[in-house]
Design a protein that fits this description.
Oligomer: heterodimer
Largest interface: A-B, 30 and 29 residues
Number of strands of chain B: 11
Structural class of chain B: mainly beta
Strand content of chain B: over 45%
Distance between the termini of chain B: 38 Å
Strand content of chain A: over 45%
Shape of chain B: globular
Low-confidence stretches of chain A: none
Order of helices and strands of chain A: EEEEEEEEEEE
Radius of gyration of chain B: 14 Å
CATH class of chain A: Mainly Beta
Number of helices of chain B: 0
Structural class of chain A: mainly beta
Mean pLDDT of chain B: 93
Order of helices and strands of chain B: EEEEEEEEEEE
Largest sheet of chain A: 7 strands, mixed
Largest sheet of chain B: 6 strands, mixed
Helix content of chain B: under 10%
CATH superfamily of chain B: Immunoglobulins
Shape of chain A: globular
Helix content of chain A: under 10%
Number of strands of chain A: 11
Number of domains of chain B: 1
CATH class of chain B: Mainly Beta
CATH architecture of chain B: Sandwich
CATH superfamily of chain A: Immunoglobulins
Chain lengths: ~110, ~120
């Protein structure tokens, strides 16, 4: 049972490069999220989606873009990587409605040098 | 502006004893609270939650208490086991503020729990 799968697990980027973090879930969840966790801090919401074709900004969206063309996939794009984007990124998904468990992926470690 | 705070960075407990992890929040709109457990190099795993209409929720060894007037919640683990050693995150959402608000979680900084055999 896969759940929420993120790729790549680790990546080193140079300043100014771009990349896409992939996220896919096999639970047919409508809601998907991207969070980032900086060292010693809690997770912060970057973007979220309530269904295919619908996305919205979270608390820290600057420097990122998302798309949701299918229910299963929710890629996060980093444009013009900056050292401040060095972080661990977590994708998550849930069913709709209060009380549905929010499942997280294992994380993607990104370093921008 | 930290809306959810876990003021204890770490907690050390003996196996078999009670672990109490604390969390404070400032946003009165928060009405749903969750605890997540995280092992190194893994994603957070849901542990237990509580709605603001309750003051206690229990699941096996885990109990969450909510004190709305004090804007405080705590997680009790009894008895503690070495396998409970992990980082524990408190999270909150304004679940009933709108249909999409449920999963928009605000996290605390986490508390590292170490349970010694």
């Amino acid at each position: 049972n896969a759940g929420v799968t993120q790729t790549p697990k680790f990546r080193i980027l140079k300043i100014g490069q771009s990349m896409t973090l992939q996220c896919t879930q096999d639970m047919n969840h409508n809601y998907m999220y991207w969070y980032r966790q900086d060292p010693g801090m809690g997770l912060k919401l970057i973007y979220y989606s309530v269904g295919a074709g619908i996305t919205d900004k979270g608390e820290v969206p600057n420097g990122y873009n998302v798309s949701r063309s299918t229910t299963e996939d929710f890629p996060l794009r980093l444009e013009l990587a900056a050292p401040s984007q060095t972080s661990v990124y977590f994708c998550a998904s849930s069913g709709t409605g209060v009380g549905n468990t929010i499942y997280f992926g294992e994380g993607s470690w990104l370093t921008v040098v | 502006d930290q809306q959810v705070k876990q003021n204890s960075p770490s907690l050390s407990v003996q196996e078999g004893r009670i672990s109490i992890l604390n969390c404070d929040y400032t946003n009165s709109m928060f009405d749903y609270f969750l605890w997540y457990k995280k092992y190194p190099a893994e994603g957070p795993t849901f542990l237990i939650s509580i709605s603001s209409i309750k003051d206690k929720n229990e699941d096996g060894r885990f109990t969450v208490f909510l004190n709305k007037s004090a804007k405080h919640l705590s997680l009790h683990i009894v008895p503690s086991q070495p396998g409970d050693s992990a980082v524990y995150f408190c999270a909150a959402s304004a679940a009933n503020a709108g249909g999409t608000s449920y999963g928009k979680l605000t996290f605390g900084q986490g508390t590292i729990l170490t349970v010694h055999p």
